[in-house]
Amino acid sequence: MHAVKRIEIISDSIELPKILNSLKQSEIDRYTVFRNLESSGVSGSDEMIEMAYIIAFCAPEQLKDAIEKIRPILNRFGGSCYISDAMEVRSLNCTALL
């Protein structure tokens, strides 16, 4: 196991390509996107807008660059970003038992 940073972003789906591009520019290519979310309290209204949830993991030294690229997008278009510590378990030699 080794330490990684978990980045969780909730944003308007329209901004999804910009956010993913920022992650890629920071050489963070391990992420998952959940689309068509329903949320309350993110935009401060009850309006239904298409939201996306992005979860990404990176080495701690990649985090600062990624946040510097993502922050302007969230500041301009809205959204939330959460950072937390996580432990990654790699299983490169995993074999399934049948």
Please tell me about this protein's structure.
The chain is globular and about 45 Å long. The chain is of the alpha+beta class. The protein has helices at 16-25, 63-77, and strands spanning 2-12, 31-37, 51-58, 80-88. α1 packs antiparallel against α2 (63-77). It has a 4-stranded antiparallel sheet, covered by helices on one side.
Strand order of the largest sheet: 2-3-1-4
Described by strand count, sense and barrel closure, the largest sheet is: 4 strands, antiparallel
Oligomer: single chain
- The geometry reads as globular
User: Which percent range fits the helix content?
Assistant: 25-40%
H/E element string?
EHEEHE
Total strand segments: 4
Radius of gyration: 15 Å
Distance between the termini: 26 Å
Total of DSSP H or I helical runs spanning 4+ residues: 2
Brief synopsis:
The protein is 26% helix and 36% strand. The protein has 98 residues and is of the alpha+beta class.
Tags for this entry?
single chain; 98 residues; alpha+beta; four-stranded antiparallel β-sheet; 2 helices; 26% helix; 36% strand; globular
Question: What topology does this entry show?
Answer:
Blueprint: E1 2-12, H1 16-25, E2 31-37, E3 51-58, H2 63-77, E4 80-88
Antiparallel strand pairs: 1-3, 1-4, 2-3
Helix pairs in contact: 1-2
